[in-house]
Amino acid sequence: xxxxxxxxxxxxxxxxxxxxxxxxxxxxxxxxxxxxxxxxxxxxxxxxxxxxxxxxxxxxxxxxxxxxxxxxxxxxxxxxxxxxxxxxxxxxxxxxxxxxxxxxxxxxxxxxxxxxxxxxxxxxxxxxxxxxxxxxxxxxxxxxxxxxxxxxxxxxxxxxxxxxxxxxxxxxxxxxxxxxxxxxxxxxxxxxxxxxxxxxxxxxxxxxxx
Length: 210
Ligand SMILES: [Fe+2]
What we know:
The protein has 210 residues and is of the alpha+beta class.
């Protein structure tokens, strides 16, 4: 089981569980992947103004830079609009010119003060130790692009990001969970009904420190 999950995350960037898992099953599998950093309830709460609690659709993005993986466990699902939308940055990069990739390596994205103190900036695209690209992106956190060449490459990136053919849709049922590589796969969601009782548990996970 453990090998299967890691294999799926390595090849496709994500893994979806079978149905009817308990929360304990979920936590056990998370312990195979890495160390939990932060746990949140993902619910709609119209009395709160933050993006996380809003029923509005969520554009493709990655979560915090320190979350190498994200796991969502479904407690209740919405009658409509609850699909998790995924897009693999590998498919985006495969469709971009080298010049655009080089320019994306220079674009800065703000990282909000959720885990550490103080805002900081990270590149939209970086290389990791093994030469693979890692993505860090949220459209609402990008710094203003003054350079026309960066802007052009960013617009090319957006064009491919919004191509529906690259999107994977996953509708989690209660007791089912999804784990993604947050350094590779971006996620988003459509609009939810205002009165939905959709409830997911989300856990940010860092790499295991062996
Ligand atoms: Fe997110």
